[in-house]
């Protein structure tokens, strides 16, 4: 009688399967390590270049033609000013849109249309948003090359990403929670405000902070709307001109003098530090709130 | 929920505090500066400048020094490129527009239709430097015709031996600034004469990339501003150019005297004459530029104009006030 499992055959195939298994394991490990190695090389290069150039003076000085005296003060403060506009504006508009689309809007052609457009907008090159900002905010609304004009442009740029992230987060809230809330006699708004939003906040904030990190590192739209590179004063209001870190770094990397490459590296370290700070806030918030469910 | 409110509140307070300190520092700084400079006449207001990234380093230097003298004046310098700068200038959005080529006719028309009058100021010279690899031992000089033959697209693969007999039978690798740059515009005008640039040329808006490219390939040739050659003298070999009167190498002297022709070019800034008349800080700044541009230019790797040129332009400026 034939056995149901032919042990010999199994043993014969085993070796091949193990090899295959190991091969793919190795392949995926390689993929992971590749990214890491590139990152390490990049960081190593930037940090070794920046060493000796990154000091407290670098943070306190304005840009200069002399590499030893060049600093990132105007750009660093400018980037923070930009965030003061972009963060609240894009969060309020983005989360508002997401709540409307997920909780209130009926599924019909119109909402489908909006949904498709939001997804498409997320993939539009940033330079296009720059052109929009130049025509609408800088020229149309006559805001000039101000923090306000740049902030509005950047908000539009990151808005689709925030909307999509917030929608995902809201969708991930279990329906039972909503039904339980209705069952207790809560209104729709009470349910959203007290039940859905608190549950969705980790997801919303993670997505939003990643989007804001993009805004702080983006150059193209600001180049298009014509933000100046050299500024030796700080903005006093949101209608003042300003500059941001990526513009300043881009300018330094293009200089003929080799010392400016070091200054640029120091600028990149400062930018990376701000980004890491923002991302760790996102991680912190996510971890804190995920414990509740 | 309470935890979250606390978190949000502290995050907000934190950022507000950070801002207050940052702004506070600034206020103190300007006060100190004011005390130091009380002697000179104090002006206030904004000066907006945009345009060529080639001219940018000179203007950065000027702005830096000017603001040390006049802390009340806020000078901002952008670098949208010569064309991008004129686009804003002709709409009246900036007071100065830096340019690495003279204003074009269509830009003049745009200015006229926007009701903008302007004055051209020359501030320094730049010598477009044609460079080859350090190991290239065959090129001793190039004539304008040879340059033209090399850089124009004619559908064939270019070899060094095609340019002059006796040169190696190897393909030439081209490195050129991108089409948006004034440097390309100038090269296009004097060498290409409107013809198409070789298709397999590697283009980059970042001149340092061109330096790397030429330094890394024995058969490479490229061109860019004089400052980039000066900073990379040890990595590159500059090619003397024969413009009809024998080969001339770009140096401070040959560029200033005009001997290095036709590749030496003036750098400009255009000033809005309405701003000159209405804003005392714009006039004062224009004067400051003409008085000091030579020093700043040399410091950042360009060549000063002969002193008479600056003096002449200062007189013109006075007439416009």
UniProtKB/TrEMBL annotation, chain A:
Residue spans crossing the bilayer: 26-47, 80-101, 121-141, 147-170, 191-212, 263-285
One Pfam family matching this protein: BPD_transp_1
GO biological process: phosphate ion transmembrane transport
UniProt topology in membrane: Multi-pass membrane protein
Superkingdom per UniProt: Bacteria
A GO CC term assigned to this protein in UniProt: plasma membrane
Cellular localization per UniProt: Cell membrane
Domain ABC transmembrane type-1: 76-281
Gene Ontology molecular function terms on file: phosphate transmembrane transporter activity
Keywords: Cell membrane, Membrane, Transmembrane, Transmembrane helix, Transport
PANTHER family: PHOSPHATE TRANSPORT SYSTEM PERMEASE PROTEIN PSTA, PHOSPHATE TRANSPORT SYSTEM PERMEASE PROTEIN PSTA-RELATED
Protein family according to the UniProt entry: Belongs to the binding-protein-dependent transport system permease family. CysTW subfamily.
Record's protein name: Phosphate transport system permease protein PstA
From TrEMBL, chain B:
Superkingdom of origin: Bacteria
Annotated signal peptide: 1-20
One cellular-component annotation, GO: plasma membrane
Location of the protein in the cell: Cell membrane
Main subcellular localisation: membrane
Keywords: Cell membrane, Lipoprotein, Membrane, Palmitate, Phosphate transport, Signal, Transport
MF (Gene Ontology): phosphate ion binding
One BP annotation, GO: phosphate ion transport
Membrane topology, from the record: Lipid-anchor
Function of the protein: Part of the ABC transporter complex PstSACB involved in phosphate import.
Subunit structure: The complex is composed of two ATP-binding proteins (PstB), two transmembrane proteins (PstC and PstA) and a solute-binding protein (PstS).
Similarity annotation: Belongs to the PstS family.
Protein name per Swiss-Prot or TrEMBL: Phosphate-binding protein
